[in-house]
Design a protein that fits this description.
Length: 290
Amino acid sequence: MKQLAITLCTLAMAFGAVGCGVNEDLYNATLKDRDAQKAKLADTQKQLDHEKAQHQKDVDARDARVAVLANKLTSLGQDVSRLETERGNLGGELEQAQKRMEELRKAQAQAEARAAQFRKLVSQFKALTDAGKLQVEIRENRMIVRLGDKILFDPGKTDLKPEGKDALTQVTAVLKSLPNRNFQVAGHTDNVPIKSKKFRSNWDLSTARAVEVTNFMIGAGMEPKRLSAAGYADQSPVAPNDTSENMAKNRRIEITLVPNLDDLPPIDDALKADAPAAPAAAAAPATPPS
């Protein structure tokens, strides 16, 4: 009711009315209170706006920190995954390195064993070597006993000469004492073609001579299963066929120590190796090494 009276009085004063039952001081106090309330409301709104802005700032800062932490977690996860992968790779490399080291140790032991065996053969064949009847050599990682055809055969023949039989008897006695070793007997000729009723080519002659030596070694006590025979004709010379001396070097019988399977590299490594192909050889009816 009081508010209504003040309002009516205000209207009356606006139209020039002179009398009003409302106290002017009360009216002024009311206006002052209203203005104060408006100012307080404005301050409160201003404070609320400030607090809201600050709160939003805090929320944005928190979201930024969360994003940074999330990125760090993601990065850490990737780092952990990468480290796990690298650890797995290093483990595999270490295993391969250890395997390779073991293979190298094994190869070194085999090389030392072959060197010791070679020195032993040289010592045992010293008398024949000094007499010029044979040579012991390592060629293309193979240990070879080489006998010239001069002491073994007459030109174009396959019958062993007495001097050749004596040399082969001594060679067989030494070689058969080597445990767990097989041998290939290989015949070689110079490049002068042979044509006769018995031999159509140097292939026939070289193979026939290898078989003759093989049979003689078997008769001298070598187990047949430890021998094989092959003919190479003139396809694996040890010297150019340009002089009579070099051609004589190429006419020969070679007894090669066949590598054991344990001496060979693993099949995977062998397949990867880029090794040159061996010369073709004519097959002979002799028992292959086991």
